[in-house]
Predict the 3D structure of the following.
Amino acid sequence: MSEGKKAKVPEHVAVYLDALGLIGPDRVAEEDAYYDIISLINEAPSVLAKKTYEEALSFTIEGEAMRLTYCRDQVLKRALEDEKEARRHIQPIEQFEALEHLLAQATYTDGFGKSRRYPLRTSGGHYVRSAEIARTARLSEAFLPQAMVNSYYQFGVHSFWVGKAIEGIFRLFEERYGLDLVDLERKRFAERRASKK
């Protein structure tokens, strides 16, 4: 690490390192790894990479079971590969979001006919924390792709795994009818742009 990076780590990182009981060279190595990860986040080549790195860092610090050096050296690359693979399964994201919205409108918490929807939750994924989505955000802005695939509605003790259901619907249409949903979505957007001109 360069001498310029020798700044004191943020308080939550210091608490995490204290919980691991690290001192001396081991602690310095973990502090260096933290700043390396922050650099990777700041220089991320895409929004997906940035969100993935941020989530992996948060998962590491909040979980207190994994070291930052391991996160930097092993987790970040694998987590990004996993997210890219998950994204391929939920393409096109716009259709995924539209189907989830339709399914959400069919769930009620205050009695039949009332539109207060069930919250969408996620069991996370590799190096991703479980969460509940704020319904003011777009699904793709609130969740990483793995979390979208692992999203569900909780009905008492029962879960409806909406993300896996939508993924299955996509595969069914592609395999049974030979559709390329990504290509169809591209054509739809091109037609919409052309009609607005």
